[in-house]
Amino acid sequence: MSLLSVVVPVFNERDNVAPLVQEIVSALDGRVPFEIIYVDDCSSDDTLAVLQALKMRVPQLRVITHQQQSGQSTAIRNGVKAARGAWIATLDGDGQNDPADIPKLLQAREAGQALVKLYAGWRVERRDTGSKRWASKWANAIRARMLADDTPDTGCGIKLFEREAFLDLPYFDHMHRYLPALMQRAGWQTLSVPVNHRHRTTGVSKYNNLGRALVGIADLRGVSWLIKRSRRTGVREL
Questions:
Q1: What domain range includes position 136?
Q2: What is the CATH number of the domain that holds 73?
Q3: DSSP SS3 for 164
């Protein structure tokens, strides 16, 4: 079996780091060769120190730190660039994604078609606040109408995708929210897989509904423009 790289972006998640790392190890140990890459986005707490201490006890753990705060999309991309595996699993660092779902995504990949390069988690039962669930439902409806990406939950942090296909996508801030549409634009197929979603038990959310909505409007317009301007064709060497 080929190596799987699990990429986890974090910012001020010092209390979530150790439990989540242990859950990842428990979910994957003995199932598949794996590495865990944490990308610290200049946390202002001691998240990085916790990671450095944990690295001494968990041989699969690698730690990358940004020199300046750059956001979740950049953290994910830098983790993917550093990854040694041909396939990448991503998780949010807040503990709301369940690492036990990674084997489910791997099983879906084994049963999937070669053209499917992204297996996206689908939080069927959200464990967020009512306002956050409402905002997400509204945003998903608008996104689906504009992008026609046939994805019920593009914002779920747990995903499995091919490293090479991901790095071939256009990069921009917040691109991680639009991976299904971007993969489809590149000519690949995507598949949504129902996954577990958990309450945040420690730390605080890094987003608010208004800020996410304002950024999302500009992003949607940009991704819609990219899709309309896309040109694809097969090639052959003579």
A1: 4-228
A2: 3.90.550.10
A3: helix
